[in-house]
């Protein structure tokens, strides 16, 4: 006969409706796999009275008050899908205090202010699923916590924002500037009216904070994550990247060193031979380097109603199976039993070594190149290749492109500051980090 | 303080020693994550007296008799890593009967004769981990059973044999013939002395049988899987593939239709724009198409001591966490609760539609091309593109290459049989299926 698990969902937006669709469309499939009836008893949404679809019509309780779910003794699992910090946090905390297991896809909340939530859930022996918070439908949270549990994961490289990846892909394919592609993405619904979180790297930073916390078994203070978005990327840089055999991606990078870690988000040039360079449009991929299993890549749709709904539903199924087994929880929310307060220092971006793409915009006149090269040399930056400007007339402003060998971020910052103050340099120098080229 | 789980490992070959290395090197990491001491109490291997390394020296009990482990009341988890059908099956069955949880990476046994084992483990409420059986270190078994549980998985495309992929990659890069690359792979330890299982697709067929069983929630009779290896692939075909914008991969393909399924293994041409075409050397990748999460790709090292050892260790950790929770098992071995005996008919390869690459080897003389084209037309096969032979003298045997539109396998088999019986056709026609071209 199997048990029946009652679920209440708070928030009927994109992910909320996707989750309901997945659970209702695949009710038979889920029952066949688990033997459990997963019953969506109630949905709370401030606009619920204005919403209607064939799925919603099957839900017994529709309410505008989240506490109709949080305080319902029949509800086993509360699913928080409203996003944002508050009241989402309050809803989650109150659900836990009422003995409910919780599923959420709220990366902003978990990255910035998750600690109190994780602690409370662990103390109360309750589950908190958040597979949908990173990589949409890509199985990655439980993969890190469980499948790769025998490994020390030392490096993460993620393309984990679909909007930014879509914009960079279109800029590359259609040779359009950022602003134009953004407008089109907004019209298609791939970018929000206020795209700041996506294009400025904030959403990516939230997600890499969660991944690095799980992978490195230490809490990462979100405010220490270096974040740079893609809004300053120009067509000319995409063109130069192609000439250098590279693609520009908004990459989240996290590395664990002996005594510290680095966690950063910025546009990055990667060689075309890397599989990550083939991750296009709204697709996401997470590339892990672990000490025993070595490299793994996890690829799929990083957003959208049904992919993220699939991850949320997977969490619900997982928790339902645990409830049915009648046992205590043995896997801590973050996958490790150490105290949460053990922090590793997060490296300052200026102390991180990498190669750099530098595009100077300088007057085309004698001596300019040697002046710039001289300043780079003064800061110990050596050049691995340079692209000559095309045809121009003396007095034109031309792009001068250099690829550097590995050097400290600080050296580049200082050199570029000095170069940008030269009379002959007419625009701010464009600096893009490069991975995978020596 | 945490519990101590005792593990006994049968078989100290590549995967056995890799598993021990992972568990011992990362003992502290695993303890930090789980709170559990995973203690390798004993290792059984017929050659144990001839083996010695720093890991082995830390193991309390070394024996040549597997039953010293199977009958040891202190052992919680028996790990079978000797491979092959027997005595591996007997060891697993006896371990289960003695109340032990089992971990194995034995794909041949599970694919061909797993049913009795799965049934017994489920009846006794014991765990049977087999993450290491497919895709080496790539998390895929539990991903299908748990993370994607809310989905109907409808298609699988896998590059799941590292040896075959290594050989095809080298043939492509170094322009060498199969035999030469195979010899080099054997010298490097990437291919076994008897490479039949790997190069003839048998190992790939074992693995897709397991994946399709899990993904489609039905038992796949292994003997119904169509299998064709890579030993007949010639440099000339690789060259033509490149000219067509494709790569040749040994692909495992499984698709679920309304009333039947297809499961097959054969060399396949795929367009270079597909990410799977970028999976090179010994790397593996599994591409899934699910109804809700859509496409996902799972990539990593498909073999080797440490990657597969990581998967086996992950299973051990997972089971240890369950034992610690003191609860009954709720996830069936195959991830679904239906009876095992529900079979879907497996489509005959002749009843499967696809595009084909056909290389005819015919005399270069007038009328030959139209004769061949005429026979193709008679069987309803239409051509999407053709590659003209290069310079040749009348009377030479030249390759004639056609790419067909989608057609039934049966049509191609019949047409090729008729064409190969022509006087002017001098060698057996090479037939390679094509995915992703219409």
From TrEMBL, chains A, B:
L-homoserine binds at residue 192. NADPH binds at residue 107. Transmembrane segments: none annotated. The keyword tRNA processing does not apply. It catalyses: L-homoserine + NADP(+) = L-aspartate 4-semialdehyde + NADPH + H(+). Its EC number is 1.1.1.3. The active site is at residue 207. It is an enzyme of class 1 (oxidoreductase). InterPro entries: ACT-like_dom_sf, ACT_dom, Asp/hSer_DH_NAD-bd, HDH, HDH_cat, HDH_CS, NAD(P)-bd_dom_sf. GO terms for biological process: methionine biosynthetic process; threonine biosynthetic process. NADP(+) binds at residues 10-17. Keywords: Amino-acid biosynthesis, Methionine biosynthesis, NADP, Oxidoreductase, Threonine biosynthesis. One of its GO terms (molecular function) is NADP binding. Pfam families: ACT (PF01842), Homoserine_dh (PF00742), NAD_binding_3 (PF03447). Residues 357-433 form the ACT domain. Coiled coil: none annotated. Pathway: Amino-acid biosynthesis; L-threonine biosynthesis; L-threonine from L-aspartate: step 3/5; Amino-acid biosynthesis; L-methionine biosynthesis via de novo pathway; L-homoserine from L-aspartate: step 3/3. Belongs to the homoserine dehydrogenase family. This is Homoserine dehydrogenase. It comes from Deferribacter autotrophicus.
């Amino acid at each position: 006969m199997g048990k029946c698990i009652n679920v209440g969902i708070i928030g009927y937006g994109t992910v909320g409706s996707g989750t309901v669709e997945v659970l209702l469309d695949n009710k038979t499939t889920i029952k066949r796999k688990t033997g459990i009836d997963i019953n969506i008893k109630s949905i709370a949404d401030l606009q619920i009275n204005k919403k209607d679809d064939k799925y919603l019509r099957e839900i017994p309780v529709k309410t505008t008050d989240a506490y109709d779910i949080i305080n319902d003794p029949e509800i086993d699992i509360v699913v928080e899908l409203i996003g944002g910090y508050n009241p989402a946090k309050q809803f989650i905390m109150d659900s836990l205090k009422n003995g409910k297991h919780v599923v959420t896809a709220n990366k902003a909340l978990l990255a910035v202010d998750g600690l109190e939530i994780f602690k409370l859930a662990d103390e109360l022996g309750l589950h908190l699923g958040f597979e949908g918070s990173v990589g949409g439908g890509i199985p990655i949270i439980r993969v890190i916590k469980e499948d790769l549990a025998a490994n020390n994961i030392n490096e993460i490289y993620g393309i984990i924002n679909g909007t930014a990846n879509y914009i960079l892909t279109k800029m590359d394919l259609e040779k359009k500037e950022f602003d134009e592609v953004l407008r089109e993405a907004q019209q298609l619904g791939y970018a929000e009216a206020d795209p700041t979180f996506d294009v400025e790297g904030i959403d990516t930073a939230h997600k890499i904070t969660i991944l690095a916390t799980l992978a490195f078994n230490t809490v990462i203070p979100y405010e220490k994550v270096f974040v740079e978005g893609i809004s300053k990327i120009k067509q000319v840089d995409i063109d130069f990247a192609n000439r250098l055999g590279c693609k520009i991606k908004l990459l989240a990078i996290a590395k664990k060193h002996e005594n510290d870690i680095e966690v950063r988000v910025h546009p990055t040039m990667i060689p075309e031979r890397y599989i990550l360079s083939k991750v296009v449009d709204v697709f996401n991929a997470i590339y892990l380097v672990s000490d025993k299993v070595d490299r793994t890549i996890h690829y799929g749709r990083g957003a959208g109603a049904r992919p993220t709904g699939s991850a949320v539903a997977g969490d619900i199924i997982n928790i339902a199976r645990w409830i049915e087994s009648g046992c205590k929880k043995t896997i801590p929310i973050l996958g490790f039993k150490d105290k949460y307060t053990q922090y590793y220092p997060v490296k300052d971006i200026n102390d991180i070594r990498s190669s750099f793409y530098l595009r100077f915009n300088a007057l085309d006149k004698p001596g300019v190149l040697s002046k710039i090269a001289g300043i780079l040399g003064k800061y110990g930056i050596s050049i691995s290749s340079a692209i000559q400007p095309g045809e121009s007339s003396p007095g034109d402003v031309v792009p001068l492109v250099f690829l550097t060998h590995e050097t400290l971020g600080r050296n580049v910052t200082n050199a570029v500051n000095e170069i940008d103050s030269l009379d002959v340099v007419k625009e701010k120098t464009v600096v893009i980090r490069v991975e995978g080229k020596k």
